[in-house]
Design goal:
With about 210 residues, the chain is of the alpha+beta class. Helices cover about 30% and strands about 35% of the residues. The radius of gyration is 21 Å and the shape is flat.
Length: about 210
């Protein structure tokens, strides 16, 4: 009986207009187009308004990973041009595997990182991917931003904050390597090296791509 009452309370709470104003759930997609690899991830985000601060700012309090695609080679038409049609097929496959459509997505971001930033049609790629994936924010992550994202995403910033320590986060990508120095939970400096984990691509003994 106690469990039934508890369930009823939860149902009434979620139907409460005040609770709905302070709590928002969004389905988000992230598309990472890097020097060598491209990956798509879908997540459900629960945001809560910081009512104690009397503000309209929302913070993410829970994140549930719904689907993560395989890592695909970033397709290039030539040394300077990303192939948007092939990239679109990767995106279509990810949506199909997740059993979702662009209309199901509330928010998301397309990020070009590493050597993908140097390609001539970077802006075209972000617009094409955004058009096929839903209403997304398109961004090009320079070396500084990418180093910061890696430091936060890897948990280095959290550990540095908890320990009060100084840590160096090293993110080895396909064409570049990013460094972030973190002190007491704050990114104090970043750097990038034009060398990565996959500078030469060979197929059947023939070099097909050289970064």
């Amino acid at each position: 009986m106690t469990g039934t009452v508890h369930d009823d309370v939860e149902e009434r709470l979620e139907d409460n207009p005040i609770w709905q104003q302070d709590n928002v759930e969004l389905l988000s997609v992230g598309v990472d187009v890097g020097s060598s690899g491209t990956q798509v991830a879908f997540s459900r985000l629960h945001l809560r308004r910081r009512g104690e601060d009397l503000t309209s700012r929302y913070v993410v309090v829970r994140r549930e990973l719904l689907h993560e695609s395989d890592v695909h080679f970033t397709p290039y038409a030539d040394d300077l041009t990303i192939e948007p049609t092939a990239l679109g097929r990767i995106l279509d496959r990810a949506y199909a595997d997740a059993r979702l459509g662009p209309e199901d997505v509330d928010t998301g971001v397309v990020i070009l990182t590493g050597e993908a930033l140097r390609r001539r049609n970077a802006e075209l790629v972000t617009s094409v991917v955004s058009a096929r994936a839903g209403d997304l924010v398109c961004a090009t992550a320079g070396h500084h931003m990418e180093a910061m994202l890696a430091a936060y995403g890897s948990g280095t910033v959290r550990r540095s904050h908890d320990d009060g320590s100084r840590l160096l986060n090293v993110d080895v990508g396909g064409g570049t390597t990013k460094l972030a120095l973190v002190e007491s939970g704050r990114v104090a400096g970043t750097a990038a090296v034009h060398a990565g984990g996959r500078l030469v691509v060979a197929e059947d003994g023939v070099v097909t791509r050289l970064e």
